[in-house]
Amino acid sequence: MSESNALTDKASLRSVALGRRAALDPSAREVAAAAAARFALKWLGDVSGETVSVFTPIGTEISTDPLVRGLRAAGAAIALPVVIAKNKPLSFRLWEEGVELVPSAGPGLIVIPAPPDGARIVEPDVLVVPLAAFDAHGHRLGYGAGFYDRTLAGLRRAKRIEAIGYAFSVQQLPAVPAEPHDERLDAIATDAGIICPAED
């Protein structure tokens, strides 16, 4: 598949998955988020003393609130990603319990909530990754900016890190095209359970 065809295919697949996500009703979202959190926490196991980066949901993304509550209760420190610049890896700020989040520049015109500028910069042990779409092989579609691929590649060169995708089960597709720079996930947590990637 040519690069231009792959990009077109990714755009159409992303549209399908995001359409399914947007169609979920509020009560179903709440139940699904709680279920996904239970599955993720069970898969992660003992996180006491570890730093876990989560994401703050934008638009119709799955809520990470139940997951954050569970991680804090289990003794994990919570971090949130911060966009430094286009084509650069993400940075991570420690999110202390009770600290109010502030607007931070995200990709393009998007504004994402983040800990304030004075928050400590940390390097996560676990990265909880937002997904537009995913498949059973651990391949993911993000939103096209490549921030998580660049970030994961850098972190994996430096240390052992677990990367777990986090999404609604309706976002799963039969196959997502993978390119050489795409970083595969170690697992994906959804309201339907944990997906441990199959080998290609």
Automatic annotation (TrEMBL):
<feature type="binding site">
    <location>
        <begin position="10"/>
        <end position="14"/>
    </location>
    <ligand>
        <name>ATP</name>
    </ligand>
</feature>
<dbReference type="InterPro" id="IPR002698">
    <property type="entry name" value="FTHF_cligase"/>
</dbReference>
<keyword id="KW-0479">Metal-binding</keyword>
<dbReference type="GO" id="GO:0046872">
    <property type="term" value="F:metal ion binding"/>
</dbReference>
<dbReference type="GO" id="GO:0035999">
    <property type="term" value="P:tetrahydrofolate interconversion"/>
</dbReference>
<dbReference type="GO" id="GO:0030272">
    <property type="term" value="F:5-formyltetrahydrofolate cyclo-ligase activity"/>
</dbReference>
<dbReference type="InterPro" id="IPR037171">
    <property type="entry name" value="NagB/RpiA_transferase-like"/>
</dbReference>
<dbReference type="GO" id="GO:0005524">
    <property type="term" value="F:ATP binding"/>
</dbReference>
<feature type="binding site">
    <location>
        <begin position="140"/>
        <end position="148"/>
    </location>
    <ligand>
        <name>ATP</name>
    </ligand>
</feature>
<feature type="binding site">
    <location>
        <position position="61"/>
    </location>
    <ligand>
        <name>substrate</name>
    </ligand>
</feature>
<protein>
    <recommendedName>
        <fullName>5-formyltetrahydrofolate cyclo-ligase</fullName>
        <ecNumber>6.3.3.2</ecNumber>
    </recommendedName>
</protein>
<keyword id="KW-0547">Nucleotide-binding</keyword>
<dbReference type="GO" id="GO:0009396">
    <property type="term" value="P:folic acid-containing compound biosynthetic process"/>
</dbReference>
<keyword id="KW-0067">ATP-binding</keyword>
<comment type="similarity">
    <text>Belongs to the 5-formyltetrahydrofolate cyclo-ligase family.</text>
</comment>
<keyword id="KW-0436">Ligase</keyword>
<dbReference type="Pfam" id="PF01812">
    <property type="entry name" value="5-FTHF_cyc-lig"/>
</dbReference>
<keyword id="KW-0460">Magnesium</keyword>
<dbReference type="InterPro" id="IPR024185">
    <property type="entry name" value="FTHF_cligase-like_sf"/>
</dbReference>
